[in-house]
Amino acid sequence: MMGGRKDKGSSSSSSSVFGSRRIGVAILIGIIMGCIFAFLFPHGLFYSPSSYNTLPLSKSNLQMGSSSCESPEKVNRLKSDIMGLSDKNIELKKQVDELTEKLRLADLGKDHAQEQFMVLGKPYKAGPFGTVKSLRTNPTVIPDESANPRLAKILTEVAVRKELIVVLANTNVKPMLEVQVTSIKKSGILNYLVVALDDAVAEFCKSNGVHVYKRDPDEDVDVIARGGSNHAVSGLKFRILREFLQLGYSVLLSDVDIVYLQNPFHHIYRDSDVESMTDGHNNMTAYGYDDVFDEPAMGWARYAHTMRIWVYNSGLFYIRPTIPSIELLDRVANRLAKEPKSWDQAVFNEELFFPSHPGYNGLHIAKRTMDFYLFMNSKVLFKTVRKDSNLKKLKPVTVHVNYHPDKLYRMQAVVEFYVDGKQDALDAFPDGSDWETNSKGS
Questions:
Q1: pTM score of the predicted model
Q2: Are 189 and 284 spatial neighbours (Cβ–Cβ below 8 Å)?
């Protein structure tokens, strides 16, 4: 019996030892597996690189790292590096944006059709016969107030619906400016701005309650502005006008020899980059016609058809702030600078109308001719209108004394006829400029 109990105790003891060994082996295997997992997955079994990288680098995290891994000096240096990299990243992003915009502008000169497609939207189906209408209006530029912050502030006070009349003037044309300002006030036009090219004009405007802008000193401009001829001053307007367009404003650019009888903005279509008055005097010359050239020596082919239109007048045109419009101003100003003997109106029309051809890229610009009875030149008035009882009843929007040298007297007569109702105010003037030496206009 005793032997039997001893054997049983011995068996129990060996079983206990065996169980302890199994536990030890299990613990050992667990430790080994833990080491393997720690080696293979140092950041944890469910570690996600994306989530780890997006964790905010908080002050507590930095402090934790510094206490376990880094010295305070290294932590501060790391913070400084992070701030420096952040500032550099902002600056690089700004440079990328600027370079992208420059590249976009540079690409305007090539693949223009593709650029128009990208700007104006998705492609369209042609549609049934007779229903197709092309896209006519270019988008306006993004205003850039950095181009001229002082002018930008003035324009917010003067412009109406981002539009205004702009006229350049120096002392040489002050008498005509006085007539124009009077007509502007009588017509109730509020968005009118004089760009004063000298102090005398600036003082005149201020004393008569006229919005005025005197440019910052510019030696290249001021030499012409102070004492230049009418043609020289006219050339300046393309350089000065560019700033208005950059700021996002549409401008009716006006010479001083123009009388205003109605608000012109009530008669602008705004469907083109440029709307200009014409030097034409009837439907054919103003709006274009087929002119047949006859060369008898060619026999059967003696008649050649040509398309003609009388020039746009660069003394009165409405221009929208679009890329083609700004390119037009740049082209004209650049040519006038390189060709000092050129006439600004001739250059203006050449850039508007000449098509692309070998060695020359034409301007992709939309243009509209103004109604020549509403925006009237002095040839139309003195050769036709004043002699026709029906046409005399029409009230034009503007009258531009562009065909005659006795500008001031004719401007005054226009005011007398259309504003004061003096029916014979225009009668004394010749059709052209053939005044006698002792006449009123000599």
A1: 0.71
A2: no
Token digits of residue 137: 């209006």
Q: What are phi and psi of 242, to 5 degrees?
A: -55, -40
Residue among 319, 154, 192, 190 nearest 250 (CA)? 319
Alpha helices by DSSP H, 56-136: 59-68, 72-106, 112-120
Residue 13 confidence (pLDDT): 46
Residue 387 has what DSSP assignment? G
Q: How confident is the model at residue 47, as a pLDDT?
A: 53
In this predicted structure, what is the pLDDT of residue 137? 80
Edge-first strand listing for the sheet containing 250-254:
212-214, 192-196, 163-169, 250-254, 312-319, 274-278, 367-369
Give me the DSSP letters along 161-220: TTEEEEEEE-GGGHHHHHHHHHHHHHTT---EEEEESSHHHHHHHHHTT--EEEPPP-HH
Q: Are strands 289-294 and 303-308 parallel, antiparallel or unpaired?
A: antiparallel
Q: Amino acid letter at 176?
A: M
User: What pLDDT, on the 0 to 100 scale, is given for residue 57?
Assistant: 44
Q: Which two tokens stand for residue 271?
A: 């469907």
Q: What is the pLDDT of residue 323?
A: 96
pLDDT of residue 340: 87
Q: In angstroms, rounded to a whole number, what is the distance separating the alpha carbons of residues 407 and 385? A: 18
First to last CA, the chain: 160
DSSP 255-319: -SSEEE-S-GGGS----SSEEEEES--SHHHHH-EEEEEE-GGGGGG-EEEEEE-PPEEEEEEEE
- Give the residues of the chain that fall short of pLDDT 50: 1-14, 17, 49-68, 108-110, 112-113, 117, 225, 227, 229-230, 437-442
- CA distances (Å), origin 22, targets 31, 34, 36: 14, 18, 21
Residue 375 pairs in a beta bridge with 398
SS3 call for 52: helix
Dist CA 25 CA 33 (whole Å): 12
Q: How far apart are CA 105 and CA 291, in angstroms?
A: 39
